[in-house]
Amino acid sequence: MSGRVYIFDTTLRDGTQGEGISLSVEDKLKIAQKLDELGVDYIEGGWPGSNNKDIEFFERVKSLNLKHAKISAFGSTRRKGAKPEEDANLNKILESGVQVASIFGKSWDFHVTKALETTLEENLAMIYDSVRYLKDHDLEVIYDAEHFFDGYKSNPEYALATLEKAHAAGADWIVLCDTNGGTLPDEIKEIVSTVCERIPAKIGIHAHNDCELGVANSLAAVQAGARQVQGTINGYGERCGNANLVSVIPNLQLKMGYEVISADQLRSLTAVARYISEIANVSMPINQPFVGTAAFAHKGGIHVSAIRKHPRTYEHIEPGLVGNKQRVLVSELAGQSNVLFKVQELNLDIPLDSEAARAAIQRIKALEHEGYQFEGADASLELLLREATGNLEEIFTVESFKIIVEHSSDRSGVVTEALVKIKIGDEIVFTVAEGNGPVNALDNALRKALEQYYPAIKDMHLADYKVRVIDEKNATAAKVRVLIESSDLTHSWSTVGVSPNVIEASWQALVDSMRYALIGKERIKTPSSTRPQLGIINH
Amino acid sequence: MSGRVYIFDTTLRDGTQGEGISLSVEDKLKIAQKLDELGVDYIEGGWPGSNNKDIEFFERVKSLNLKHAKISAFGSTRRKGAKPEEDANLNKILESGVQVASIFGKSWDFHVTKALETTLEENLAMIYDSVRYLKDHDLEVIYDAEHFFDGYKSNPEYALATLEKAHAAGADWIVLCDTNGGTLPDEIKEIVSTVCERIPAKIGIHAHNDCELGVANSLAAVQAGARQVQGTINGYGERCGNANLVSVIPNLQLKMGYEVISADQLRSLTAVARYISEIANVSMPINQPFVGTAAFAHKGGIHVSAIRKHPRTYEHIEPGLVGNKQRVLVSELAGQSNVLFKVQELNLDIPLDSEAARAAIQRIKALEHEGYQFEGADASLELLLREATGNLEEIFTVESFKIIVEHSSDRSGVVTEALVKIKIGDEIVFTVAEGNGPVNALDNALRKALEQYYPAIKDMHLADYKVRVIDEKNATAAKVRVLIESSDLTHSWSTVGVSPNVIEASWQALVDSMRYALIGKERIKTPSSTRPQLGIINH
């Protein structure tokens, strides 16, 4: 078995149907960029006929200059009894400026008569006209046969007739959808085989995970002749989600010998899956196949002694092939090589086997154990390594801070004040500021304290702020991890803070961000006449 | 296809190898009780040869008087070069007093020589002697062929020879293990078929989920002739987990027509899966197939209008068959039909086309525009609909709150205090409490105020807390959305708050959670002698 299998990613469309998944246009653009780097062939960006956010996405995605992936817009076949050229939904696809359209139509006679409330003949005409209309406008057309497997089981001849119409109208791909996710791998295999025999078209599969068989069904369809797999990163999607591409891709490539993405792209799989889970703000299950932090973690004593001798004894693949790594849960051995790599990258003047390097690694391990994560916080990691190796000048130190949030029935809304006391050189600087919230107030107060000494601070701003509960078992008493992304005129950096207290965690990340911003920046000796005002509480 | 398939649950043994899973003896007894009620045939309680906790479990489980399930103890074949009667591990199984033993041996030549460091012949003798020894003591013996599929691929004749030895020694079941979870369903099917032809024994399957194929592999083995499935509840287990019985059972029974458990027991599946996730203290993914809260949740407007007409259009099974239920999510993607569906579901006494219903929809749309999201906040939505339609008694009103967070250089860490003033009936209640963070402090203070009037509040706790920045372009001044999930003894609910201030957003969600918890609960008229203390600031 071999050959090329194409990946159609619908994280940005079907993925957002998942409960708790909500993506801004910014989020969608960041994800599209990553998907392109991963090497997927198609990125379904949204449904321009359904909302303005998706229209904005299609407009802005043009400026990303993707290297490989084609952007596809979603839509349905024309309305019953209308002409395609008068169909707003189809015309929105054309207006969105994409090269690829993916439109869905009905294959299940029950759906045609009960949900669509039209005749079987009109449905065939709707499929033909819609595909033809888009082909006449030179789009690549992917026809999604909704509920195909249920339709086939109910009325095979009619289900096949809908595909024949799409093919006759010129559809480039015909994708068989198990919309309700209720079909078993054997049925998928048998039905896809029949379709491949009957319809001389390129066939794809769109599976859902309602029976925990989304990945298995996708693989079964490929074995039966399908050459396009639709799915989402981490299996996001309505109900139990779509087929998880993060598992589909390595299974196809490493286990079944198909060509999907390059070996280098496959090595980015873990990073991409984790990045997208961060953007979507959905914590990745630690036991997620291939890419979870526990996917190659060994706990049992027997397993551990065996994997020391031969990793293959308890690992089905070499974890590095998908960018993951082995972990031994009793003695954390991971990470060391990454840290050493970083020390080298920063050009810190210390030998890799020195006491200082070892101390830095110990410190990082201890912090990771507390819940810090430096993968998404390069600047915090750099500060830590510089500090541990004596390569950091002190910019300022924190004396204290205080936050007061007051919500009164007799005042309009909430008032937040932050008091910050820091030491810059020999001077104590004490400021107060208001803000929209506690973190904003702290940001304002700290900025006010610093900018009279370091005018460069005016050029930097906070670009993103994320909060993640690390151990949700303890709910509001659980630890939280705050990630702050900051930018100045030329680059951006990320910092991290961890605490059971969201304010304290935010403060740590905020302080790191400003310390990082000011590395190597000039300190102004403020004229003494202006100094006293810093001690005065103002805002 | 039909017949009886036996379920062997190893949640208490293999399940506890999962990262983050740790069960006390008490926990294990509670789970064993539930598994028996669910109707599993075997419960693997632990490995008496490896630790004293498991020995205590086997002692105490005798007093549970299980109705159906047999308790099994785990162990390995005898040590190389020793006699079974001198093997402490095998003797511990006998001492544990179980009727069933499950012992594992090596099938993979590579493992025999590299991990076990013995000869292929001695391994065969170890298998024979160990099974024979346990059979001589009248136990039912389940022989687990570790790494069978990898072993078969490496050296089929040797792998089959190990099974023949177990069979010749009298093993009641021979279970083929895909220990590393790397085998694909097709290979499983082919190899299990061959084994069934060659070995005249009852065959079982033990699959892992490393390729996200644990369920598919279990089903494939049954199709090929296996009649015992080993797995764990919710798929707990080492690395990516074991085959998830919560998906295996309904697939076998509802989709493939096998007899597994009774229809009544199947209806308890959702409750059992959630109960065990509570005991294991692992939050259940909302999108878990069959039993997750999102497994039958509908978000897209098109889907919703269709399921109102005919549930079968977008549901692969009737959710009640596994004890789950349909939910309609209200979100930006959905239309008016979702809200109307919800009004109906809540049994609110208003016509769907009334002024009150329209006003509720307008209010929801306006709030969604501000960043609220009700798809993950059923309880907030219910409060809102009840309020809009005059179906809500007032439990308490908020007068004011105040939060002080102080981080001083001269005190250890951060101190957080919350002051809360609410009105219950005609009385003002003013409390203060400390907490790990501002939200925890507010939770503590509000709870203190309420519990003297509503003792029922003690039964509820916050189970999860999520923060999402809605529009990250404004960074720390951006709006945040807070989702809080709460539970009491019988069910769980979710609430939402939105504000640029994370404290205010959390407060809204917290207040909604407690209001919801107290709907219909009795208010105690606190004796007046105890009342004055409520006005005193204490914690």
Task: Give the secondary structure arrangement, pairings included.
2 copies of one chain form a homodimer.
Chain A: E1 6-9, H1 25-38, E2 42-46, H2 52-61, E3 70-76, H3 88-95, E4 100-106, H4 109-114, H5 120-136, E5 140-146, H6 148-154, H7 156-168, E6 173-178, H8 185-198, E7 202-207, H9 214-223, E8 228-231, H10 245-255, H11 263-267, H12 269-280, E9 297-298, H13 301-309, E10 327-328, H14 336-345, H15 355-370, H16 378-388, E11 397-408, E12 414-424, E13 427-435, H17 438-451, E14 461-469, E15 480-487, E16 492-499, H18 502-517, H19 532-535
Parallel strand pairs in A: 1-2, 1-8, 2-3, 3-4, 4-5, 5-6, 6-7, 7-8, 9-10
Antiparallel strand pairs in A: 11-12, 12-13, 14-15, 15-16
Helix pairs in contact in A: 1-2, 1-12, 5-7, 6-7, 8-9, 9-10, 15-16, 16-18, 17-18
Characterization of this structure:
2 copies of one chain form a homodimer. Chain A is an alpha/beta fold and 539 residues long. Chain A folds into 3 domains: 6-261, TIM Barrel; 297-388, no CATH class; 397-538, Double Stranded RNA Binding Domain. Helices cover 38% and strands 20% of the residues of chain A. In chain A, the strands form 4 sheets. Chain A has an 8-stranded parallel β-barrel, surrounded by 9 helices. In chain A, helix 9 (214-223) links the parallel strand 7 and strand 8 (228-231). The longest helix of chain A is centred in the N-terminal third of the chain and has 17 residues, at 120-136. The first copy, chain A, is globular and about 85 Å long. At the A-B interface, helix 4, helix 9, helix 10, strand 9 and helix 13 of A face helix 4, helix 9, helix 10, strand 9 and helix 13 of B. Strand 11 of chain A pairs antiparallel with strand 11 (397-408) of chain B, so a sheet runs across the interface. Chains A, B: Residues 5-267 form the Pyruvate carboxyltransferase domain. Chains A, B: This is Citramalate synthase.
